[in-house]
Amino acid sequence: MGAIVPAWEELAANALEANPFYEPWILLPALWARGEEGFECVSVWDEGKLIGLFPFERRASFKRLPVATLTAWRHSAYLLCTPLVRAAAAHAALRALLRWAVDQAAVLEFLYLPAAGAFDDALRTVAKTIVRTARFSRALLVKGSSAEAYMEETMSAQLRRQIRRNERRLAAMGATTVVVRPGDAMGDEIERFLALEARGWKGREGGALASNAHNLRFGREVLAAAHQRGQLHMVGLNCEGRAIIARGVRSRGASASSPARVPMPSRRRTTRTTPLTRRGCSPRRCACANSTGSRTSAGWIRTPIRTTPW
Question: Which of the ends of the chain has fewer CB neighbours closer than 10 A, N or C?
Fold first, then answer.
């Protein structure tokens, strides 16, 4: 997959719906961290241009039914699994995928798609049979005109007074505000961020990035890459050399996981969608198809795929 990174980056920049989790700078470290077993990535090309990229995991069953299934591939830190399809060729990419999938799996399962989003609409236009298997809400932070206006709108007067008292106590203890904008020196803030997450409830439940060596490396690589790309904005408070609250935000809209908790006034609908195809099965592979659904001259690329020295 490393050989297609330039085309992959160009596709991500022109995608129908943005999804940084499926961009190479996050997906490749995530693949290394989680492992490649069952991984299949379908890439769709049209006259040498990449128009679709669909990371899947092959499974032998779907909801206890013994049917071949391709389900959206995800790392445990992923919040979104929308495939990357070129906005100007979304229908062609999806048609090519579905034609290829007829002989590969009985079920395609797409996880964590924004409901009624552009990809969901395109999929419903192209696929004949879609079953929505889950639907749930996820918190969405809507930025106010200012911090003061946001707090007045979402918090009671009593809570605002308590926050001001806490601010004075923290200041007396020597707490300092940390703001690292794109382009600023990062220092040790990534390590403080990861250590703070590990000390909280995620660490106690084994879900923190620092809970195992592979995910710790994934967290370090992804946060460092986001900063290098000018896409990481970190804010928080440090006291006595340790982070006591921190939040990392990707500047183009996706959030890194964080132990900080922020009131969220509105909701975003997210769904699981399952297009049904005919039965079929094949060995694990990374498939390349063009917009007519046939194989490219590159043919099949067998997994495991290891593209860069880790």
Answer: C
Write down the number of H helices and E strands in the chain: 9, 13
Q: Give pTM, 2 decimals.
A: 0.77
Residue owning tokens 């890459």: 225
Looking at the DSSP bridge assignments, the partners of residue 176 are 238
Report the relative pairing of strands 266-275 and 242-250 from DSSP bridges. Answer: unpaired
Which is nearest to 280 in space by CA: 36, 34, 40?
A: 40
Domains of the chain from N-terminus onward: 2-140+268-302 (3.40.630.30), 173-263 (no CATH)
Burial per residue of 296-305, b for 16 or more beta-carbon CB atoms within 10 angstroms, e otherwise:
eeeeeeebeb
Q: Are 53 and 24 in contact (CB under 8 A)?
A: no
Residue type, 180: V
Confidence (pLDDT) at 59? 94
HSE-CB of 292 using CA atoms within 13 angstroms? 5
Q: In what order do the strands lie in the sheet with 176-180?
A: 176-180, 232-239, 242-250
Distance separating alpha carbons of residues 254 and 20, to the nearest angstrom: 7
- pLDDT tens string 130-161: 888 888 887 777 777 888 888 888 899 999 99
The DSSP element (H or E) to which 209 belongs, if any, is none
Amino acid (1-letter code) at residue 202: K
